[in-house]
C-alpha cells in the first residue's frame, strides 16, 4: 500500500501529528518510507519513533514504536484518552512499554465498507 492509497482524513491526521512533534519518525505504509517529526515522543531528547500503517478491507492497523526510556503508564491520562477514542470507533488499543525498552502503541480500527 502506498501513502497515496490512504484515505484523505488519514493523511491529514498523520500530517497534523507530525507537525506537533519534535523528534524524527519513520512513517511506513509500504515502500517508500518517509521520515517526519513526531512530538509525542519528545519526552526523551534522544528518542526516535516509527509509525507503521497497514490497511486492508477489514481494518486499519497503526503501530507507533519509539526507542525512548519506556515505562509509559497505559492508564495515564493521554493514553486513556487515546484508548477511549479508539474504542469509540469499535477499535482496540494496546500499549507495551517495559522500562528501558521503549514504547509501542498499537491501534486496530475496523474499516467500514
Attribute tags:
Heat Shock Protein 90; alpha+beta; 2 helices; globular; six-stranded mixed sheet; 113 residues
How would you describe this protein?
With 113 residues, this protein is of the alpha+beta class. It has one domain: Histidine kinase-like ATPase, C-terminal domain (Heat Shock Protein 90, 2-Layer Sandwich). 21% of the residues lie in helices and 34% in strands. It contains two helices and six strands; from the N terminus they run H-E-E-E-E-H-E-E. It has helices at residues 8-19, 77-88; strands spanning 23-28, 34-38, 49-55, 59-66, 92-96, 104-110. The protein has a six-stranded mixed β-sheet. A hairpin with a 5-residue loop joins strand 1 and strand 2. The chain is globular and about 35 Å long. Residues 31-37 have low confidence and may be disordered.
Supply the CATH superfamily name: Histidine kinase-like ATPase, C-terminal domain
Tell me the count of domains: 1
CATH class: Alpha Beta
**What is Rg?**
14 Å
Determine the N-to-C terminus distance. Answer: 18 Å
Share of residues in strands: 25-35%
CATH topology: Heat Shock Protein 90
Globular, elongated, flat, extended or rod-shaped: what is the shape?
A: globular
* Percent in helix: 10-25%
What is the mean pLDDT?
A: 75
Widest β-sheet, arrangement of strands: 2-1-3-4-6-5
Structural class: alpha+beta
| H/E element sequence | HEEEEHEE
Continuous helix count: 2
Show unreliable segments: 31-37
Q: In the CATH classification, which architecture applies?
A: 2-Layer Sandwich
Question: Largest sheet at a glance?
Answer: 6 strands, mixed
Total strands: the figure is: 6
